[in-house]
Amino acid sequence: MSDTVEKTKNGAILYDTAIVNQIADAAFTAGGWQQAYPVTGTLRSSGRGNTLIVGDGRHEFVLRHYCRGGLVGRVIADVYVWGGEEQTRSFAEWRLLYKLAAMGLPVPRPVAARYRRRGTFYTADLLTERIPGIESLAQRIAANRSSAAFWFGLGTALHRFHKAGVCHADLNAYNVQVGPQDELWLLDFDRGRLRPPGTWQQQNLARLHRSLQKVRRLDPEIAWTERDWQRLLDGYFHASRSA
């Protein structure tokens, strides 16, 4: 495993030496790059404004600062309770992404993770390689560019993750991304983990279903229907029977 942990003044950085020879705190700020711009999108696909595309003129990366969501996030925006280095959100997600990439699953390759500790609290950041040409599933259906074969293939691809025991903590229409050849990519594995088969697989699918229904409510002109969802399930269970 080509990982190295370097201690900093108030935390540590974990990074892949096969991608970068060295890294510093500046790499986790917009000012540390030649170019940096926020992720944008339609139908709330840009998240909570905590993600940037950064680059050095030759390569582009995705820089994400961990922020809390929901009601808690309104009070405590980006601070977490310290529980040990390997339990930090950034290190845990980096380790999981590294494993999934090694398994050949379509996820962003992790580059570096950082935490900065202050007493019993910490903040965290993650740097991953940017996957060119992808768009969220929400954006894809908003453009009304999908077919029966697309949904069937999406279900088949999702089963591949579940077969490998990958539990995504927030499987939704924004973390599910689609490439130029309709290939599936999954992003944002914060709080994700590897688990044995169980009811979490059905819960994952139910979460995605609710997300797609919400996207349709945001724009009544979207042509997505429950029939499309059934096609996704057809692909998922076809892959399950063939496994």
Question: How does the SSE layout of this entry go?
Answer:
Layout: E1 3-7, E2 11-16, E3 35-38, E4 51-55, E5 60-65, H1 70-75, E6 80-81, H2 89-102, E7 110-118, E8 121-129, E9 135-136, H3 137-142, H4 148-163, E10 166-167, E11 176-178, E12 184-186, E13 193-194, H5 200-218, H6 226-242
Antiparallel strand pairs: 1-2, 2-7, 3-4, 4-5, 5-8, 6-8, 7-8, 9-11, 10-13, 11-12
Describe this structure in words.
The protein is an alpha+beta fold. The protein has 2 domains: 3-129; 135-242, Transferase(Phosphotransferase), domain 1, CATH 1.10.510. Helix content is 32%, strand content 24%. It has helices at residues 70-75, 89-102, 137-142, 148-163, 200-218, 226-242; strands at residues 3-7, 11-16, 35-38, 51-55, 60-65, 80-81, 110-118, 121-129, 135-136, 166-167, 176-178, 184-186, 193-194. Strands 1, 2, 3, 4, 5, 6, 7 and 8 form an 8-stranded antiparallel sheet that branches. The protein starts with a strand and ends with a helix.
In short:
The chain is 32% helix and 24% strand.
Distance linking N and C termini: 29 Å
Q: What is the overall number of helices?
A: 6
What do the pLDDT scores average to?
A: 92
Task: Determine Rg (CA atoms, Å).
Answer: 18 Å
Largest sheet geometry:
8 strands, antiparallel
Globular, elongated, flat, extended or rod-shaped: what is the shape? globular
Strand fraction band?
Answer: 15-25%
Q: What is the strand tally? A: 13
Helices and strands, in order, run as EEEEEHEHEEEHHEEEEHH
